[in-house]
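In practice, a research group might receive sequence data for several interacting partners and want a quick structural hypothesis before committing to experiments. The following worked case mirrors that situation: the sequences arrive first, and a predicted assembly follows.
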Amino acid sequence: MDIFASFGHGLLVAMQPENLLYCFIGVFLGTFIGVLPGIGSMAPISMILPLSFYLEPTSALVMIAGVYYGAEYGGSIASILMNIPGTPSSSITCIDGYPMAREGRAGIALFTSAIASFGGGMIGMVVMAVLAPALASLALNFGPAEYFAVILLGLVAASAVSNGSPVKGVAMVVAGLMLGTVGVDITTGAERFTMGIPELRDGVNLVVVAMGLFGVGELIVSIKANASGAHQTDIDYKQFYPSRAEWKSIFNPILRGGAIGSFFGALPGTGQTVASAVAYAVEKKLSRNRGNFGKGAIEGVAVPESANNSATQTAFIPTLTLGVPGSASMALVIGALMIHGITPGPRLLVEHADLFWGLVASFLIGNVMLLVLNIPMIGLWVRLLQIPYKYMYPTIIVLICMGVYSVNNNVFDIWLTLAFGWAGYLMRLFRFEPAPLLIGFVLGPMMEEQLRRAMLLSRGDPTVFLTRPISGVLIVITIGLLAYSCVSALRARRHQRGALRSAE
Amino acid sequence: MKPHALLALAASALFATSAVAEPGKWSDTPVRIVVTFPPGGTSDLVARILAQYLDSEFGQKAVVDNRPGAGGTVAADYVAQQPADGTTLILGNNAPFTIAPTQFESLPYDPVASFTHIANLGASTPGLFVQPSLGITDLDGFIALAKGDGVTYGSSGVGSITHILGQAVDTALQIETIHVPYQGSAPAIQDFRAGVLDAFYDSMAQNSAMIEDGEVVPLAVAAPERSKRFPEIPTFREQGYDVVIENWTGLSGPAGMDPAMVQTIHDSVEQIMAIPAVIEQMDQWGIAHTAMTTEDFSSFVANTITVWRPLIEAANVNGG
Amino acid sequence: MMLPEHPFTKGNAMREFLLRLRRSEDAASPPHAWLGALGGAGLLVLSVVFIIGGIKLGVGVPRRLGTGAFPVITGIALALLSVAIILSDLRDTRDAETPDWISFAAIGASLAIFAVVSDHLGLMPAVFLAVVVASLPDPSLRLSGKLILGAIISLGCWGLFIGLLDLPFQAFKGV
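A structural hypothesis for the assembly, expressed as tokens:
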């Protein structure tokens, strides 16, 4: 197979000293800035973009990619320690990571997240090396109807993420969809629910929703909880390493997460957040330990981390081979290439083979670097939890403000964060969960856009979703999943009732 | 490559309002160049190139400040409110200065009176591309198809320049096409390649690879004359339809800036736009530089609003 | 739930009646049931707003779905779901978390102050005041401690975000 030859050649490119250096700079910056809530990979990438003008295109790309997946490693740290997703895609990691930290197992959670990220990254890399052309042509078969079907599947999966009442989970997804309609309607240009506020024309920012619902909402809850000393649990510094049983239990979830993640990553736009949500939902259905999900299950940390990291790697496939950026950070990657006169497209694989394979090989190097960088840091991060909460939470509030402000350099976003923070607190009081809402919110605008586009292109014929083969199959899978969840929920209820009756 | 740019530079220096003005540094604190798009697009890259050369040529430190949102009006509103001391400039374009005044009922700024329009950077030309499988090669074929089965076309968004162009073409060719808006041209092109769209409008230069590979059939460019890069593609005018829509980019500041400083900025920009490496880079992005004096550029901005108004109204971009 | 022995509850029928009464009270009045129904009601109101707004914007035809179509579809779905939530939450008898309105207000005020002050006076005073206000509900830190904390964090933010990351913040404004 000439894949091995190409990869070997790429490895030589990536091992050149200057590429090693820029790879290290990238992953180092990414992982540390990813820890800061809300900052994400955008800020550091735009920071190093001017620097990349002076570099070889491969070095520039390797460095930017390093920031991008480095931020995913870092993003999970804030999720686990503070229940604040450092990057939006790590919001799923909060669900089990934070409970683990509260049980004093923060070290294991962080270790698991690093290992799972590494595993996912490797799976993503292999998929990219072997399947890039195939996945690119798959993405080319995705028209509006197919995207709609994929998103629908993602949403049904997302409503299953919830631990509480399933009705509330679905309601939160739908509320997220609804919230996503605020702003200028991209199909007609009319303003919706903006109340005449110009800042709302582009809708509510994702970072605002994530920081408000998760960050601020959680903070209000924990002030009282921690004043009584509940936060300062004893932590055994020695126990960072998962036990043999734990290793065994995360192995398959990492593989599944990686596979699901690399699929969603390759579809521009759906990206890491959907990948981690779907992977988590699937795992929750498959896992033998499913009863513990949401209460600190180690699989619940491994799966989303593996998924979002493999999605991060495969997100380069549509960016490089189709020129379609799935996210703002990926748009920056295209910008960095354009400045060197390289146009992303199907010919990139052939004309710039060095660049492509050098990048793929740098994933291997960068992920090893991240592992080496992150594992010794675990002790330090865990020690952060020992800082009395009275010092911690005002700091977190300020970090949230800065993160939100840095997105659009706009004070209005802080006011919105306040509103979402209050809403997040009330939701906790009423036992609603923020994760499904966030996923609905991410996918809502895309879903609406593709729905309307599909209807426009089919000239008003709704059967298009069933008659196009890929979308038809996806819709059938979605209906199957929905039916299965309903039946199992009903069966569980009947079982519960039966148990109650026999207890009486 | 562009001697007329240098000539214009010399000319503008001659007619400078202030005798002391010459290209150079104008502010001790770093200048912020506000960009109306998120980082990574052509507009952002142009601003970064400008910032880079302002520093290397004149020692004028400059940083790029991306303030995307609401069709560029967020950035324009922000700049209009900043002090007119030359430390905040905007890399302006059609969206906030030409289209928004007609698109939105009320704007927090006046596209002409709230700004000092300093220098024109250049314009790129969009064109009309169709699927090769349709078997048409000219606008007459396009008209026949639109009147027969109907044609779907992708634009980079409601109220975007490609949407306005689509409307202008519909009006000139007296046809009705089905407009399918996307968020930017990349997803539209993806759907085009997936075979769900019949046509799309986009910048010529961005699609050079697809043109060379025969994956698209370019029918016409919306420029006054054929482009140097694709001399075989005819203009709309040649085929008998008066459609000219160019996507300009320029540098502006808040209203009330000191004329001498404006001249300094203008001349610095003109000098940078004449550097061969910059010309080559702009060429690659399909941006052709036309030197304009500050006065000319201001009246150009004001003029474009009036010229485009009927097209924007016809496109019904506010959904009304 | 055990009822205290009471002279009147000796009879079996009477006891049965009181038990039933207590159960219905449990279902209707404990704080959580009340709050839960409120959450569902909030969602219901929200969905009605979106339905009405969506209809006003126009739902269009299948071929060209209008601006309001998606808000109306999701609004109707959410309205149905929130009715289901109200009904099920009224039966939910688990203990509620007691709301902590002081922290609620303090964190809100902290964000509001950051927004106002960073816009008018710059980043440093905004961070300082936000920290002090946010730490108000915590009694374990004295006021002097809160002020020192504010000073340390604002210096740290300056170093990290302006010094290191070079984000476009202004440390002080209009002073």
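Before designing any experiment, note the following. Chain B has two domains: 3-123+247-315, 126-221. Chain B touches chain A through 55 residues (CB under 8 Å).
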